[in-house]
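Predict structure. Input: Carboxymuconolactone decarboxylase family protein, 168 residues.
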Amino acid sequence: MLAKFAEAPALLRGYRAVAPEFDTTSLTPTERFVVLMTASYMHDCDFCMSAHSWGARRQNIDPKIVGALQAGQSLPDVKLDALRNFVAAMVNARGAVTDADKALFFAAGYSPRQALEVVLGLALKVITNYTNALAGAPPNAEFGEDVWQRRRKPSRTTASVPATESQS
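Output follows.
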């Protein structure tokens, strides 16, 4: 992945700037993991799902949480599941979540600041997930038993782009 980033030095610099900043948010390590895994699952990123699963064992993240996120299922912890649902809503709505989505997130104990920190995590995942999709980067062999492969059929749609005068 980093080798692909290096083909566009600005992208590599952007990644190196954003990634450590996400670690300084008020979200706990497990909450940050939920953000990263949920977005990676929704983007069908085999590489990132595998890398985060592999890293989770080294960070002592509950295997039940890892397994549920790998399967795209609800989490056993109500607050973490509210975070998972908010991230999914953000991805699905391209950020334009409903008032109900925000209310559920805030009712679970999250703050407006943390909603914005989710945006930072999503920006990080757009950089990595989209780059891996473009590059076709396979998971590293050392991920071993943590290698994850797409479990859903990708939905590929082509957006219609209105013709401009120059295209007419």
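The helical segments are 2-6, 9-22, 29-42, 46-58, 63-71, 78-92, 99-107, 112-135.
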